[in-house]
Amino acid sequence: MHRQAECFKRIFLVLVIIIAARGDAAERAKLTLGYSSTGPTAVGLWVAKDIGAFDKYGVDPNLVFISSGPVMVPALIGGDVQAAIAGANAVIAAVLGGAPIVSVASLANRPYLRLWVHPEVNRVEELRGKTFGVSRFGATTDNLTRILLRRVGLENAVTIRQLGGTREVGLAFRHRQIDGAVLATLRTDVPHRILIELAESGIQYSMGQLVVSRDFQRRSPDTLEKILRAYIEGVAVLRDANQRERVLKTVARYTRLKETKAIDEIYSDAFKYVDRVPRVEADAVSTTLEFMGKKGLPIETFADNSIIDRLVKEGFIDQIYKNR
């Protein structure tokens, strides 16, 4: 009799655990969260997912890669994704075109891109009349290429080719179909060199922004805050040098890269450039606005820092880092 009672007790406990687990799953907010780059700005998001930060805050995001910002924005507007990481230029252009979206965070406010050239190129003036490759027109690579060309006096002095993605840019460089490219890393097996580090040239630029529709912001402010809290915890792990090996494994898994050097390059740029406080800073979008001919446009037109500012004020971010 005692053994039978014990058996029923165990069955009861198992049922309680199953019901509780189902309840927790039901309470988690399910959503699709897109990212348009497998570069440094996505690393904090991946880490947050891997360490269970989203689960901690009751959010269940399905992370989906969509090739570029100009493609991501229509997906966001159409409701295919509820939140997205996209380039600042694509976000601002969409808002100016009437899209009901808003940026709630800027993940990196300095450009980690470089101007890559063939080894024989020693001065930027030597690129006059040459060809540059970009992933897509309107993407971050395209926008920063044009901003750099304007800064060095080569605007309208080079040809810009749209190639589809960073892999295609690398192949075009390999076959000398292009003479230069503005990328974080140039994937190619032929000799190449960095001519200009954009971050060191004085260019400030919002590399990736977390964006939602105005409707989602209005209907689900609590879920939006949970997303940001989880993301910030992911970045705290990313920025912890003691977690390097763990983060490298995350980068390798999401990028599907096999080369140690390529994985380490993404990690190093993320560690260096992804911001502790992901605020949309006026200085970081001023270059984009000026390039678009919208200098002086109020940042509130396309961004809302209220959640980030509140998390800073309440000490949430300081506490996350203090506890590490």
Could you please describe the fold and organization of this structure?
With 324 residues, the protein is α/β, with parallel strands linked by helices. The protein has two domains: 7-109 and 205-322, 3-Layer(aba) Sandwich (D-Maltodextrin-Binding Protein, domain 2); 114-201, D-Maltodextrin-Binding Protein, domain 2 (3-Layer(aba) Sandwich), CATH 3.40.190. The protein has helices at 2-27, 43-50, 53-56, 69-77, 88-96, 140-151, 166-174, 214-219, 221-238, 244-255, 260-273, 282-291, 306-313, 316-322; strands at 29-35, 59-65, 83-86, 101-108, 114-117, 131-134, 159-162, 180-183, 193-197, 208-213. The chain has a five-stranded mixed β-sheet, sandwiched between helices. α2 crosses α9, α9 runs parallel beside α14 and α10 crosses α11 (260-273). The longest helix is centred in the first third of the chain and has 26 residues, at 2-27. It is globular. It starts with a helix and ends with a helix.
